[in-house]
Description:
The structure is a homotetramer of 365-residue chains.
Chain A: E1 15-25, H1 28-38, E2 42-46, E3 50-54, E4 64-68, E5 73-81, H2 84-96, E6 101-104, E7 115-119, E8 125-129, E9 152-160, H3 163-172, E10 176-182, E11 188-194, E12 202-206, E13 211-218, H4 222-234, E14 241-247, E15 254-259, E16 265-270, E17 283-286, H5 302-306, E18 309-310, H6 329-333
Parallel strand pairs in A: 1-4, 5-8, 9-12, 10-17, 13-16
Antiparallel strand pairs in A: 1-5, 2-3, 3-4, 6-7, 7-8, 9-13, 10-11, 11-12, 13-18, 14-15, 15-16
The site of one fe (ii) ion (FE2) has 5 residues of chain C, from strand 9 and strand 13.
Protein name (chains A, B, C, D): Catechol 2,3-dioxygenase
Pfam families (chains A, B, C, D): Glyoxalase (PF00903)
EC number (chains A, B, C, D): 1.13.11.2
Amino acid sequence: MSNVIPKPSVPAPDILRCAYMEIVVTDLAKSRAFYVDLLGLHVSYEDDKQIYLRSFEEFIHHNLVLTLGPIAAVAAFSYRVRSNADVDAAEAYYKELGCRTERRTEGFVRGIGDSVRVEDPLGFPYEFFFETEHVERLHMRYDLYSAGELVRLDHFNQVTPDVPRGRKYLEDLGFRVTEDIQDDQGVTYAAWMHRKGTVHDTALTGGDGPRMHHVAFSTHEKHNIIQICDKMGALRMSDRIERGPGRHGVSNAFYLYILDPDDHRIEIYTQDYYTGDPDNPVITWDVHDNQRRDWWGNPVVPSWYTEASLVLDLDGKPQDVIQRTHSSEMEVTVGADGFSYTRAPGDALTGDPGEEVGFKMGHQL
Amino acid sequence: MSNVIPKPSVPAPDILRCAYMEIVVTDLAKSRAFYVDLLGLHVSYEDDKQIYLRSFEEFIHHNLVLTLGPIAAVAAFSYRVRSNADVDAAEAYYKELGCRTERRTEGFVRGIGDSVRVEDPLGFPYEFFFETEHVERLHMRYDLYSAGELVRLDHFNQVTPDVPRGRKYLEDLGFRVTEDIQDDQGVTYAAWMHRKGTVHDTALTGGDGPRMHHVAFSTHEKHNIIQICDKMGALRMSDRIERGPGRHGVSNAFYLYILDPDDHRIEIYTQDYYTGDPDNPVITWDVHDNQRRDWWGNPVVPSWYTEASLVLDLDGKPQDVIQRTHSSEMEVTVGADGFSYTRAPGDALTGDPGEEVGFKMGHQL
Amino acid sequence: MSNVIPKPSVPAPDILRCAYMEIVVTDLAKSRAFYVDLLGLHVSYEDDKQIYLRSFEEFIHHNLVLTLGPIAAVAAFSYRVRSNADVDAAEAYYKELGCRTERRTEGFVRGIGDSVRVEDPLGFPYEFFFETEHVERLHMRYDLYSAGELVRLDHFNQVTPDVPRGRKYLEDLGFRVTEDIQDDQGVTYAAWMHRKGTVHDTALTGGDGPRMHHVAFSTHEKHNIIQICDKMGALRMSDRIERGPGRHGVSNAFYLYILDPDDHRIEIYTQDYYTGDPDNPVITWDVHDNQRRDWWGNPVVPSWYTEASLVLDLDGKPQDVIQRTHSSEMEVTVGADGFSYTRAPGDALTGDPGEEVGFKMGHQL
Amino acid sequence: MSNVIPKPSVPAPDILRCAYMEIVVTDLAKSRAFYVDLLGLHVSYEDDKQIYLRSFEEFIHHNLVLTLGPIAAVAAFSYRVRSNADVDAAEAYYKELGCRTERRTEGFVRGIGDSVRVEDPLGFPYEFFFETEHVERLHMRYDLYSAGELVRLDHFNQVTPDVPRGRKYLEDLGFRVTEDIQDDQGVTYAAWMHRKGTVHDTALTGGDGPRMHHVAFSTHEKHNIIQICDKMGALRMSDRIERGPGRHGVSNAFYLYILDPDDHRIEIYTQDYYTGDPDNPVITWDVHDNQRRDWWGNPVVPSWYTEASLVLDLDGKPQDVIQRTHSSEMEVTVGADGFSYTRAPGDALTGDPGEEVGFKMGHQL
Ligand SMILES: [Ca+2]
Ligand SMILES: [Fe+2]
Ligand SMILES: [Fe+2]
Ligand SMILES: [Fe+2]
Ligand SMILES: [Fe+2]
């Protein structure tokens, strides 16, 4: 890999967690119907250009900013760091990487103070900040608790052509890998990495990028996610349920993927596991294991592999999308050329419940 | 319809509920692993030929009999009636229908007394009994309560070529329809009908028959069903999860379909609604409504439409399967010739979340 | 028992289920805040004198009528019968009993047609009707589904001095007992009886009566009940949580008791069991079994035993309350004179987890 | 406060999390029945002197060690640190504090390597280690998942007479306070503090100490905790349910307290909130707020305030218990001399649901 991203000589900022995403939407009213009326996120501020939303247990100003604009895209993946000094550290770090950076002591959006935004080596608009306006933490406001309540921002997911290249860069930045998907040819298809002690704060999905694959919010329990499905059915929006609900193999979380009015993908997620120890065991999944993406073997729909949101540079222009040249997870696992197994040969725990390496023909395209 | 089944002049028996199914399995050890070790049904009796199983809240002897035999099939759909006099009534009723009947005062299986089995007009082996051995109702034995506990037998589902013909016969027998699926050409694709005040004790699914589509057990909550999926994943049996979990349109229940070692289909089911009033509103679903079978619009896999279990006559021989000549639900809804919508034109409750009559292309075959 | 209530010679009406309660409240706005804003019941009709409410899965006009009046009381315990002929039957039945009856073909309240109200032999205002306006069954309106959604009316509970006397009368009326509480002196403290195939449509609690002990609504799952507690905490109404949540011994249901602004007691209830078979096993609990009222041995607060709502005669005057002369369940189980055990002598399933017949001293008054 | 614990000049160890507790039990078979058969903890190792147990999602060797001994007590509160260098740091830190320390490179128990145990300034036996044997993380072994599965060790709770003194010491050691209980006289009754980003890794409860108040395990969902209650009811062990289930005010978690055969108190706990940001808002509860300990206002039983387990010194002798001289939370809130309110004057969110400052008389002793 000739284009390896070097590790800067200056220290990486101390990142606490993924904090918020700023997304550009093309119809604020439709987006409000989706995020506020359907999903029940709580409005911290809104005007005719932007809506600031937070989850039930959040005390920083917001976890999501909807900004009206001409092209649906992502304006920022924003991480909270431990202090203002870490904002300085982030700025120096990316400058040494030769990335374009922009520092604004008053913040790029409301409710956030001194921040730096960068065009990172993978082409993503990353932001780092510490200062934020504290808002009412609603965690005991059960009078506001909806049946499908979103209680925390959990993670981002980014599409990038070369996963090992991106992983090395993020590990240098202080992220720790918890799980990944590989094949026996040495191809990495995806990797999950964290700062806050859960399975991830962000993940890299192999594909044409830079693009934003999804942003994920947590619920308390599984039934909360089921309620979101049920409500989308009641609103005759079931065609906006893209995938799930299901149990992930990777992360062990219960999940759902839905699409907002601009096709930004939102994941609803609950019950992954603690990863905060430095020797937390890394789990590598075989790309041909049919339970890696869905523990119940339910198929991943093709759109989930192929569709994603554009990301913006610091001028607000969409970044060019670069094609993945490594193997495609979809191609190696789905359809006539693909191959997946439920049980590796000789692996069956129970008395031969089907074929030796059974998988779900009917479910595959 | 020239072959209409006449209503007998004698009164129909007073049926309480679906009570148990006797199924023939080809490997008792494998079936035991499935029903006892995986699903946690409770053994009321077992020997090297049969296993008698009951659900957590049952007090009659069993809800399922596994009988070792050469061909996987269903030996009896058994209903409990209000009294022994109703067994007499059932016998007289089917005799007048010209059906073959067999009465055994000592019962056909253990734990059941005076019974009649019949080859019904649709070709199904129906049984009616009142006498049964009471066993310990385990409903407060939480020391035995597994994470995916099955608490009640809920219903049967039968495949028959001519649904209106079967429906008329079952309505004469005292069943009341709660929901059905039709098209605007007057074709009925399926009908649900009950005795016990839930959505159904049995349902008719249009297709080649007589065959047994599935038998369904209830759980208390939705997470119990998710646990069954998770456990099947852990046992590397995810290829035996055929469809779901999901929310039914019809019945409003949360569901899962799994396959036993002989491909007998088992549904796990929870939270339908009370239907015991005589004017309970019947719900008719349009066959093209993409939320009728799954409220979240997730696709029905083809095997669910095409595969089903043979049923036996009173000699233990498989009944001939007669082809459905009416339209196939699968053909009119799935694939190139099919058509389904999420929203009827002009029906959207929310601001145009997708196409006018959106449905999930990626999910269809 | 010299005052036994004779069984009429005419047939009893065919009762389907408890259908609604009409309660008199003294401040309609406060009651609306409780039943609509807090509990999320759905308004079928309201004006400045009455509010008609229904649960999520109901299709008859209402399950609860709040009528503004000077004295908090219960105006009617209303049962739905199978047909108008059964309203006639009810009228004849109570006339033969010598009870005062009033028939109104236009109904006593909105949404209900031909009805009879009676002052029953125990002093309760009972109503019987079949005709009702069908309203939208909201069972799939998950866009309206709150986190603590009440989905069905489950049962009434009535306080009466002489439980066996009342039980005999209700059994004659067609109710079937599922569970009761007795002591070894032959005293019955309470009895549960049903029509619709659950543990009860009504129950008799021994005490000064006639009074209304509570009316109960069902939720789908246990977390829905917990949410109601959490919401009452958030609204700083925890002093209106009277008892629970807990698991009943009797009925095996998960429960909560809360008090409305007039101290009418509401139970929230989920997951009892099927009782529709004629030989459904009756469970008799020992009054000294400390798990009979709460399976976890948590104490019953004294107010739960002593407080209840007045009931009205057909003129709208409160019925006189007659003292119970049999033993009081509270007195025989709570406090210095009471006695309860967790394990009967020699009954421990586990190795002596405490005293031989352990109970919770700290929890008792 | 003349006996303030000074902050050492050497750096504090970098503590990751509470990792395990070693408790002395007097009957290993009874304890095994409790922790393995009832609670379903997984055995990592056992012999006739000790049982090593872990929770479902754990990968270090154990979360609980049961050691057979003559007196029920706690032998160690063990924290995992980031590295072996942090074990050195811990040793140096406590040596500077003048505490007795003992270093064992081979560990004090199986599965743990280089460790230091100390008699800390509050009299508790604290342990610090990094090295541990990795065992199978069972987090996807849903074939082993019980209905009341314990998935993580969550926290310790320690009784100490002078909470501010202990809090200052633990803050110096690197713990961060998330919540506390105070009165307007400046008395602190309890404090919660964390390392791992949840509400706590340990808490200080004001009372006679040093004693161990409880050790807490997490479940995934609330129903898992309810199942533990239900199972204890089925096993006729309800008198070993000491308090709950309920919703905490402090921490917002759903909780249950049960007692093991030696009266060691175990909490089952789920769904507190993320606290990992350095400016995480601290919540101070008024000791008179009747929802602080139970959000639903259910009473705290006296035993919960008064009973706790002895702790051992490094010779295995019970530490002397020193009386609390500050106000007792029980005395200021329960009984004739106590005072609690549900609503502060003028605080009611809803229309006067009861008394101005309502609380539950009937529930108080
Ligand atoms: Ca709401
Ligand atoms: Fe994700
Ligand atoms: Fe079914
Ligand atoms: Fe009740
Ligand atoms: Fe705790």
